[in-house]
Amino acid sequence: MRPFIGVSGCAREDDTGRVTYTVGDKYIHSLADAIGATPVMIPPIGARLDADALLDRIDGLFLTGSPSNIHPTHYNTDVHGPEDPRDPYRDSTTLPLIRRAIDRGTPVFAVCRGHQELNVALGGTLHQMVQELHGKRDHRADKALDYNDQYDQRHSVQLSEGGLLAGLNGGAGAVMVNSLHAQAIDAPAEGLSVEAVSDDGVIEAVSMPGAPGFVLGVQWHPEHPMALNWPLSQAMFQAFGRACRNASKAPAAAMRAAATRTDTAA
Predict the structure, then answer these.
(1) Which of 34, 59, 116, 120 satisfies CB 3.0 to 4.6 Å to 3 for a cystine?
(2) Catalytic site residues?
């Protein structure tokens, strides 16, 4: 059974004001290759999106990374430092969609910006520029490296004992991950459990044990072809895939299709 997974899209506005909806190919390919899913981009159309109608038809929600950052007003904070790329179209789509998906028990897997969106949607806050915090390293991508090399292992994270990720990692307490972000979770939202912390104290992964469905967010990029070969990356995608198959709408869709054929024949 190939689960249908909704993938968050971004909006890109050019100099003429024309908006294009996009999603990076590595997100699409990772879902198709790692768990045999059929990915479907969710356009960032804000209130035009009927969240319940969408969630009636998909088996899981995958929240991607992006060059843009969540606007600080969504976590009741002023903008600090120079203005960075924003995507209000995506903000207005993903934040309410996340809340509704979790309420309904739809499996949610979030990476990078998506990990931050998960926290903000549930009431948490973010650090806007981790590299300016005392004692923290620069977690941004090393632009001196080739694009693909930027996704190689960069620093270690400590997995929380007894947590979801530690279980997926065979009980091992630490792994190496990549790092391509400027923002990160500050105060975790109520209900989120910290799953991993970097060696300089940045929250790198969260889960939601009390949610009715699978919920996992990671700050790094397990979906890149290089990282997708790592055992924990594969385990995370497989766990998400199992949750999506368990929540599959395929039987209901088959019943609707059969009813349509019957009505047509009549």
Answers:
(1) 59
(2) 112, 221, 223
Q: Is the separation of the CB atoms in 214 and 107 below 8 Å?
A: yes
Q: Are 8 and 64 a contacting pair, CB within 8 Å?
A: yes
Q: C-alpha 256: how far from its chain's center? A: 30
CA distance 145 to 51: 40
Residues 129/182, Cβ–Cβ less than 8 Å:
yes
3-state class of 110 per DSSP? strand
CA separation for the pair 113, 91 (Å, rounded): 11
Q: Tell me if the pTM is above 0.70.
A: yes
170: left (phi over 0), alpha (psi -120 to 50) or beta: left
Tens digits of residue pLDDT in 213-250 = 999 999 999 999 999 999 999 999 999 999 999 998 76
Contact 5, 83 (CB under 8 A): no
Provide the token pair at 123. Answer: 């009431």
3-state SS class at 172: coil
Q: Which parts of 6-50 fold into alpha helices (H)?
A: 25-35
**Nearest in space to 65 (alpha carbons), one of 245, 240, 217:** 217
Q: β-strand 10-13 against 155-159: which pairing, if any? A: unpaired
pLDDT tens string 142-164: 999 999 999 999 999 999 999 99
| Residue range 68-92: mean pLDDT, rounded | 88
Tokens linked to 238? 């497989």
Spatial CB neighbours of 226, under 8 Å, sequence gap ≥ 6: 148, 151, 152, 178
- Check if the beta carbon of residue 247 is closer than 8 Å to that of residue 59: yes
Q: How far is CA 259 from the centre of its chain?
A: 35
Among 70, 44, 103, which residue's Cα sits nearest to residue 185?
70
